[in-house]
Design a protein that fits this description.
The chain is of the alpha/beta class. Helix content is 34%, strand content 20%. It has an eight-stranded mixed beta sheet, with helices on both faces. A two-stranded antiparallel ribbon has the order 1-2. Strand 4, helix 3 and strand 5 form a beta-alpha-beta unit. The N terminus is likely disordered.
Length: 237
């Protein structure tokens, strides 16, 4: 899980920058993580730029691109990239040990279709990603901020849904997953109200976990204990 951001929004839907929306969390890197940062960053790392990147230039090919916000330690992101070599993957994470771990696992798996940012997700989305350029955006297990008074800190809010929509191509999908039922209800409410989206669920609420999202160890344990996980998939129309 990753506390991607604690951005708050005012009534007009503008991001409040009173507090920075994120902290680049250095953390203590293991020797292996530090080594991976040094060795793999030149080929897999993306340095933040305030202008949109050229995906064809970055990946050296034309392909659908999937972007994941807050990939944690990167295990499932690398698994997805390996399972779908025909897709490009971009991951964003503010926690440096997570970035190091992801690069290490990616190098070991021999994936070449993955690039990562060590930066604030909102800033990357707002400035570095071109409008209508993504085939899928993934937000898995974001910080649920479960105390009611903290609900406004949840990343899934109307302006955020609008930002994601602007970056998706028509037919592109915003895929969310959470293990907090209350947050899944909040997500559903926000996404149902967001213009320009269609819920891919046939029942108008959640979907079965799609094959492309790997089952995490944490999630498998949750299943055994009878805990739920809720997946939502909304398509840009």
């Amino acid at each position: 899980m990753s506390d991607v951001t604690t951005a708050e929004f005012n009534e007009e839907g503008k991001y409040l920058r009173k507090v920075r929306s994120f902290v680049l969390r250095e953390g203590r890197l293991t020797k292996g993580q530090a080594q991976a940062m040094e060795q793999q960053w030149p080929s897999m790392g993306l340095d933040y730029t305030p202008e949109a990147i050229d995906l064809v230039e970055v990946f050296g090919r034309e392909a659908d691109t999937v972007l994941e916000i807050g990939f944690g330690m990167g295990g499932s992101l690398v698994e997805m990239a390996k399972a779908s070599p025909e897709l490009n993957f971009i991951g964003i994470e503010v926690h440096k040990p997570g970035v190091g771990a992801c690069l290490s696992v990616a190098a070991e798996a021999g994936v070449t279709n993955l690039r990562v940012y060590h930066h604030d997700a909102l800033e990357v989305l707002e400035n570095s990603i071109a409008e209508g350029s993504l085939a899928r955006v993934q937000l898995f297990f974001p910080d649920p901020w479960h105390k009611k008074r903290h609900h406004k800190r949840r990343i899934v809010q109307a302006p955020f849904a609008e930002l994601i929509r602007s970056k998706l191509k028509v037919g592109g999908v915003f895929h969310l997953a959470t293990d907090w039922e209350n947050y899944s209800e909040h997500m559903l409410e926000v996404m149902n109200a967001a213009p320009g989206y269609k819920n891919q669920s046939t029942t108008g609420d959640v979907v079965e976990r799609p094959e492309h999202r790997p089952l995490t160890k944490f999630e498998a344990r949750g299943h055994r204990l009878g805990h739920g996980v809720w997946d939502l998939m909304f398509e840009r129309v």
